Amino acid sequence: MDIYLQLAANGLLIGGIYALVSIGLTLIYGVMKIINFAHGEYIMLSMYFTYWLNVKLGFDPYLSLLLLIPSMFVVGVLVYRLTLHPIIHRQQQLTILMTMGLMILLQNIALMLWKADVRGIQLSYSIKTLGLGDIRLSVTRLISFGVALLTAVALKIILDKTWIGRSIKAASQSPQAAKLMGVDTRKTYMIAFGIGIAVVGIAGVSLSPIFNVYPLVGTQFGTLSFVIVVLGGLGSVAGAFLGGLIIGLVSTFSGFFLPTGYTEAVYLGIFLLVLLFRPNGLLGKASAGGGK
To answer: Which domains are seen in the chain, by residue range?
Structure first.
């Protein structure tokens, strides 16, 4: 029984981090209906950002959030203004092609700058654990889970209690009605995209003490993010968090009981089953159509 409790604890901790990886993706889709194929590459960039701050300046990864959150927000705003803003009201295929192009571009820039070397952050508390009865909890995973939970709560407060949050929700529900109520949807889209990329940056920081970084690491987490948001429901922040916890548990238990390499096959199988039998996800709503 103890081993099952330990696996469940590990699964929930890593699942919370997976959820954080996916929240930015589902937020951007929920507001603008943009499927951001470059999502994983922003995670990769934030992981490198965290790594170099640690190596060159001695920054603790979690303290680097103070620099990384505003930096990634600015990156998101600039990317939106330069690449997505001119085509946001055109065919959705153009935004898909644009984000795929950005994915390839960012991967190759990372390869040119940092080669294919695998790098990792070594912290004094990386191998430390906390005891909860017979269960041992990794300190880094526990901190990262706390960051994920705080981010989800902060994002909900922003969306529910602030003017920009209400504007984002209005634009996501009906852009035309939002315009009639005086909402500048173009500015709202830009800010929402910036917030989404800032959340991705937080995810990169949370992943850095746990996973190694290399130019193609974004592919791994990008695929995982799509599985989670489809499971939870596209556009649902709560669904992304629930989906992350579920995939974390599935990955941990399947990694323990099945041969190495089967974990990804298991959660991709879940992805296909959800698409077949519940395409709107666990907490998603049926699309009513409409445009931007």
So the answer is: 2-114+128-277 (1.10.3470)
